[in-house]
Write a structure and sequence with these properties.
Elements lengths: L1 E5 L4 E5 L1 H10 L8 H9 L3 E4 L6 E8 L6 E9 L7 E9 L7 E4 L2
Parallel strand pairs: 2-6
Antiparallel strand pairs: 1-2, 3-4, 3-7, 4-5, 5-6
C-alpha cells in the first residue's frame, strides 16, 4: 500500500494493491503506464469536486496536456465517515472533459 500526501485534503491518501488492480482492470489506458500521473494528481490537483455519486467521496482532477492529446486524470478519493482522518483511492480514470460538479477547492 502506498500513502500519498494530499495537501488539499489535509492528510494522506491510501492507494492499495487491490485498488491499483481495479484501476488497471477497468481503466487500462491509465495503469500501469501512468501511475505517476495518479500520484501527481493526488499530490497537486488542479481542483477538487464533490462526487455526485457518493457523499463521502471527492474527485481530484489534474489536466495533462501531453497525455493522449490532452486529458484530465480524475482520482476518486473516499473519506471514512467514522474516521474522518482516513482517505483512500476508490478509482481513477482519464477524461477529455469534466462532468459538472460543485468545486470545493482550487489550486491558487
Amino acid at each position: 500500500m502506498a500513502r500519498l500526501r494530499c495537501p488539499c485534503i489535509g492528510g494522506d491518501v491510501e492507494l492499495t494493491e487491490e485498488r491499483m488492480r481495479h484501476i488497471a482492470d477497468h481503466h487500462p489506458d491509465l495503469l500501469p503506464e501512468h501511475l505517476d500521473r495518479i500520484m501527481e494528481t493526488v499530490a497537486d490537483p488542479d481542483d477538487v469536486r464533490r462526487s455526485a455519486r457518493a457523499a463521502n467521496a471527492r474527485l481530484l482532477t489534474r489536466w495533462f496536456g501531453d497525455l493522449r492529446g490532452g486529458k484530465h486524470v480524475v482520482v476518486v478519493v473516499a473519506t471514512d465517515q467514522g474516521r474522518p482522518e482516513r482517505h483512500w483511492v476508490v478509482t481513477a480514470y482519464m477524461a477529455r472533459r469534466l462532468a459538472p460538479g460543485v468545486v470545493t477547492w482550487v489550486r491558487s
